[in-house]
Recover the amino acids of this structure.
């Protein structure tokens, strides 16, 4: 359990009502949310133990492969750290990811895209962060794909992230994009965030320093979860 | 002031999209052999079943359509009002035919808040789906419980909101109904947690 969470700044988050994203029209609530100070309910939360994570859970190129056949596509590393709003790394955070395959197809009964399924790629992974808040996934570069919105539009390449920190109030679900993807700027889901810096923070950066050690293209995506009053005071003590 | 660190911006939310099962509940859509178990399938798995209740309901969009491509998550205390990190989390989806969800869990007890005041028994509920740019949060309270002094319900009342959308109706012995309305006249009260 942690101390009270600092108030969420909704200006750096997407608008719920964002008609350019058609699906939001019938789903986004119209009334303002009720704000209140954290109670014991929001400052506690489930903690997942490292023993739930299997050896291949963070390697999406192997965790669904049959007879050691690798999925089609560019193998990449996605890595980064999870910290709170005062830059304290968060150990023990559970990250779950899901994504389309290299052709832009999800292994899901509701995906109507005509691109092919890859029999060796499920597109799911999970990991629990180390003491420095570090995480790493090995996966396949997801493809962009068409979807019905205002007519047919194209989603930029992306990976979905779900994160559990130390408390339910820190819970975050988001998407990571790829540096240089020309589809990012026209994506209504990205543009539901009006703050430029916040938008930019969802775009992973190509990390060229890893070319020699990992021999794979590596993308860095750091995640910041809400801070608490306690971590604020801890930092202040250190600074004195 | 030099001792105060800058407050960084929280990473923004994005919609969980229509395919969230792949990452969060793969076994539920027959992606088998990747994760041993989906998380949150059985809250309080080690507790006695005779104390359990069922909470059932649907999530309706602005056209009054019951949705099934959503994910619900709950976080709650045990029957004594104690939060423990190992249990009390559940994750589930509505049945694709009936469009109803069923949560089989302990009824939470009165909860001591950090300020020493008691909170009435409740469950924190979150909803993620296509069309929701951020996860929505609300609370389930229970008809028949003493709700008069609950701090959050008082805040809701003081902002002149009707609290009834936050109270599950008792429809049978140990069975409660909690429908959620994303829009419209009956729009559920959502919380900035």
């Amino acid at each position: 359990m942690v101390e009270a969470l600092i108030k969420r700044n909704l200006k750096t988050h997407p608008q719920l009502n964002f008609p350019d994203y058609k699906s939001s029209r019938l789903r986004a609530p119209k009334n303002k949310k009720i704000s209140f100070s954290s109670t014991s309910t929001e400052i506690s939360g489930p903690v997942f133990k490292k023993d739930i994570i299997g050896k291949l859970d963070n390697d999406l190129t192997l965790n669904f492969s049959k007879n050691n056949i690798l999925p089609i596509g560019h193998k990449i590393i996605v890595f980064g750290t999870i910290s709170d709003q005062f830059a304290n790394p968060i150990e023990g955070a559970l990250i779950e990811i899901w994504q389309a395959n290299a052709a832009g197809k999800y292994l899901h009964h509701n995906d109507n895209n005509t691109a092919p399924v890859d029999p060796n790629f499920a597109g799911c992974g999970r990991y629990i962060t180390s003491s420095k808040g570090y995480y790493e996934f090995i996966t396949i570069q997801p493809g962009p794909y068409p979807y019905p919105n205002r007519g047919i539009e194209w989603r930029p390449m992306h990976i979905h992230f779900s994160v559990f920190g130390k408390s339910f109030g820190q819970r975050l679900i988001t998407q990571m994009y790829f540096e240089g993807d020309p589809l990012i700027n026209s994506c209504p889901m990205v543009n539901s965030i009006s703050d430029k810096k916040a938008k930019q923070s969802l775009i992973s950066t190509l990390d060229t320093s890893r070319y020699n050690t990992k021999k794979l293209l590596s993308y860095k995506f750091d995640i910041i979860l809400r801070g608490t009053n306690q971590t604020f005071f801890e930092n202040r003590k250190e600074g004195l | 002031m030099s001792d105060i660190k800058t407050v960084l911006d929280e990473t923004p939310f994005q919609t969980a999209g229509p395919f969230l099962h792949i990452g969060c509940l793969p076994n539920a859509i027959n992606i088998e052999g990747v994760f041993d178990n989906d998380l949150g399938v059985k809250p309080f798995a080690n507790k006695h079943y005779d104390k359990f209740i069922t909470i059932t309901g649907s999530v309706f969009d602005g056209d009054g359509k019951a949705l099934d491509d959503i994910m619900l998550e709950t976080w709650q205390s045990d029957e004594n009002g104690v939060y423990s990190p190992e249990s009390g989390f559940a994750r589930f989806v509505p049945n694709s035919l009936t469009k109803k969800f069923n949560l089989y869990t302990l009824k939470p007890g009165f909860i001591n808040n950090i300020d020493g005041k008691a909170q009435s028994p409740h469950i924190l509920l979150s909803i993620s789906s296509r069309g929701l740019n951020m996860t929505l949060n609300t609370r389930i309270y229970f008809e028949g419980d003493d709700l008069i002094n609950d701090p959050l319900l008082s805040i809701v009342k003081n902002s002149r909101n009707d609290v009834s959308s936050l109270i599950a109706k008792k429809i049978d012995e140990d069975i409660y109904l909690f429908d959620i309305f994303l829009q419209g006249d009956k729009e559920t009260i959502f919380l900035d947690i």
Notes: Residues 96 and 123 of chain B are 24 Å apart (CA to CA). Chain B has one domain: 21-181. Residues 151-158 of chain B form the longest helix (8 residues).
